[in-house]
């Protein structure tokens, strides 16, 4: 029998709580839901007002995975949805605005991905992002070196960057910008990726071509496009272990000598939040937004 619980006055059926989703550690679906419930105070502000795309993996990372942008069948009528313009035609997507919606979505077993714009201004970027993706044998250690260069380069334009792990192999950088077209944000990000490659040709590549990437860090600037999304801060990832896209300090980035030092699992987040709070909180303050040059 599926247990029914009440969250903020909403009745939720939370299923298969004992099901092991991460066999490498025995992490269960119940623990996934507990993680999202306890992380909600810092996660929800980064999801709010942004249409959410779900990467679902209901049988764990080794099972079927599928990316869903449209409102899933069976979505409760109290979950906020909105029509989102797309090149191929408008779509209705979910907005995770509150704890009840977060727990409903977490029960589907999802990664949370968001665009760099809010629903009130589709295609007008208020975030700038770089996804630093290492090609083996490069690792997050090399990503950190590139991240430090990008941080200084962005600072030269008056833009303050913040870092988080991707929850996989790499690193994400994000900055708050005054609303600008996604096309301009993408153009600017590409300009900096090209500059990074010129400055560190043995370490950086700005093109996605697979043959160019072994041993280098791909600076993915394309996630600034209006149609693209990036893994949200604090989301769990569909990996062998319950890895998290976790904010990190610049001191941690500068001191990274071992990939394991920037690998965070769900149980690691509570003590980090106690020590640091939300390291990405400045992204939520409109006063920190900077105009692109």
Brief description of this entry?
This protein has 293 residues and is of the alpha+beta class. Helices cover 27% and strands 25% of the residues. The longest helix has 19 residues, at 29-47.
Give a verbal description of the structure.
With 293 residues, the chain is α+β, with helices and mostly antiparallel strands. It is 27% helix and 25% strand. It is built from six helices and 16 strands. It has helices at residues 29-47, 99-107, 140-156, 182-199, 250-254, 266-276; strands at 4-7, 10-13, 20-22, 27-28, 51-56, 66-68, 81-84, 91-95, 110-114, 124-134, 162-165, 171-181, 204-205, 217-220, 230-231, 247-248. Strands 5, 6, 7, 8, 9 and 15 form a six-stranded antiparallel sheet that branches. It has a six-stranded mixed sheet with strand order 13-14-10-12-11-16. The radius of gyration is 19 Å and the shape is globular. The model has no long low-confidence stretch (mean pLDDT 95).
What order do the helices and strands come in, and which of them pair?
Elements lengths: L3 E4 L2 E4 L6 E3 L4 E2 H19 L3 E6 L9 E3 L12 E4 L6 E5 L3 H9 L2 E5 L9 E11 L5 H17 L5 E4 L5 E11 H18 L4 E2 L11 E4 L9 E2 L15 E2 L1 H5 L11 H11 L17
Helix pairs in contact: 1-2, 1-6
């Amino acid at each position: 029998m599926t247990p029914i619980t009440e969250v903020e006055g909403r009745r939720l059926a939370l299923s298969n709580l004992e099901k092991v989703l991460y066999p490498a550690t025995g992490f269960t679906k119940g623990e996934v839901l507990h993680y999202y419930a306890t992380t909600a105070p810092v996660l929800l502000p980064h999801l709010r007002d942004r249409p959410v795309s779900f990467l679902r993996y209901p049988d764990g990372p080794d099972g079927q995975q599928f990316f869903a942008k449209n409102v899933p069948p069976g979505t409760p009528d109290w979950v906020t949805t909105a029509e989102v313009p797309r090149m191929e035609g408008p779509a209705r997507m979910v907005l995770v605005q509150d704890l009840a919606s977060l727990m409903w979505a977490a029960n589907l077993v999802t990664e949370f991905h968001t665009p760099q714009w809010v629903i009130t201004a589709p295609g007008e970027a208020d975030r700038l992002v770089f996804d630093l993706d290492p090609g083996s044998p490069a690792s997050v250690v090399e990503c950190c070196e590139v991240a430090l260069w990008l941080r200084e380069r962005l600072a030269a334009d008056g833009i303050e960057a913040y870092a988080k792990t991707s929850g996989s192999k790499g690193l994400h950088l994000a900055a708050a910008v005054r609303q600008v077209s996604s096309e301009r944000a993408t153009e600017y990000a590409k300009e900096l990726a090209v500059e990074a490659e010129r400055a560190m040709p043995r370490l950086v590549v700005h093109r996605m071509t697979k043959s160019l990437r072994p041993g280098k860090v791909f600076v993915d600037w394309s996630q600034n496009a209006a149609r693209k999304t990036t893994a949200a801060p604090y989301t769990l990832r569909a990996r062998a272990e319950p890895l998290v896209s976790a904010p990190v300090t610049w001191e941690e980035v500068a001191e990274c000598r071992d990939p394991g030092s920037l690998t965070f699992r769900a149980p690691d987040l509570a003590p980090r939040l106690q020590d640091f709070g939300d390291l990405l909180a400045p992204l939520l303050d409109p006063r920190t937004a900077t105009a692109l040059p």
